[in-house]
Structures are given as structure tokens and as C-alpha cells.
Amino acid sequence: MRVSRAQAEENRDRVITVASRLFRERGFDGIGLKDLMKGAGLTQGGFYKQFQSKDDLAALASRRALEEATRRWSDAAADSDDPLGAVAAFYLSRDHRGEKAEGCPIVALGADAARQSAEVRKPFEDGIRAHCEVLDEMMGGVAAKDPSSKAMAILSMMVGAVTLSRLIADEHLSEGFLDAATEEVRRIAARDDDN
């Protein structure tokens, strides 16, 4: 049975959305095409009609996840007198720590993405740059081609803190990483110099 062009686009979009969540939850190699397509309510047979390869889908799903992450930052910062503080509070929260399938794709897939093709790594590089631009703007700077050292330090610290907090079973130590990073983000953002 043939599907309309609109239905095909809707199916493709659904596969990208489902893959975005499942890759964050299980890793790029932790789920096969059959289970990805099943998760989207479709059969594996339609995969190659919509995507060139699993790398193609991984790149599209990663881009979607990173764009969603940037939107979540904007939502957290909206209507706040302290947008950076609001983003840090959201990102370095216990709730975000527990969000494997919906959480930060850099945390969930960063190390895994580094071992993937350039096609899959590219959305991560673009997303990291976008996150740094948002951080620079929140600190009163101008979004530039190259991020400031403050933005790079803050992003590195926040990603690292969430990653470490997810690895540690000891709740007190896990929360300690989140709390320490929150304090350090405030300190870095408050520094007058950009060194």
C-alpha cells in the first residue's frame, strides 16, 4: 500500500523524533534499525526509503536533540532576571540528571558521537557552538564565530557535572557534583575578565 507524500514526511519525522530519544537512552550502537522503526510504529522495510543509512538517521536525530536542548535552555531562561542562573538551575538539577531519553544529547551521546562518522559528529559541533553562543549572550556578550573562554568553561563544567552525577550511585556525591558546578558557573560568570 502506497502512502501519500504527506504521510511519508510524517513517518520520517516520527522516526527522527523516536531515534532522538532512543539514541540518547541506549547509544548509537545500543539499538538496531528494526527496534528503531518498531519504536516509531513502522516496519524496518521502509527505513531505506526515508534514510540513506543509520548514520544519516543518527545525524538527523542528533541535530533534532541538540535543537531541542537549545530550546529548553531558552525556555528555562525566559522571563528570568538571571537567565544564566536559570539555565544552570535547570541543567544542573536532579530532574535533568535523571532524564536519559529527553536530557542533554551532549551528556548522553558525547563520547559515543566522538567515535562516529563526521556526518554524525557535525550536529554535535554545531550544537556545542550554539550552546556557547547562548551562554555568551546570557553573560551580556555578543555571539561571535568563536565562543568566549567563559562560555566554553561553563559548558564544559555543566556537561561534565551531569555526566559524573549520572555515573555515581552515591546520591550525596552525585548531588555534590551538581551543586559544585552550579556554584562555579556563578563564579565564572561573575568574573570581570575573560581569561
TrEMBL record:
Keyword Magnesium: no
Gene responsible for this protein: yxaF
Keywords: DNA-binding, Transcription, Transcription regulation
Domain of life: Bacteria
Keyword DNA-binding on entry: yes
Cited PROSITE patterns: HTH_TETR_2
InterPro entries (alphabetical): Homeodomain-like_sf (IPR009057), HTH_TetR (IPR001647), Tet_transcr_reg_TetR-rel_C_sf (IPR036271), YxaF_TetR_C (IPR054156)
UniProt cross-references to Pfam families, sorted A to Z: TetR_C_13_2 (PF21993), TetR_N (PF00440)
Residue intervals of the HTH tetR-type domain: 9-69
Residue ranges: DNA binding: 32-51
Name this protein carries in UniProt: Putative HTH-type transcriptional regulator YxaF
Species for this entry: Martelella mediterranea DSM 17316
Gene Ontology molecular function: any one: DNA binding
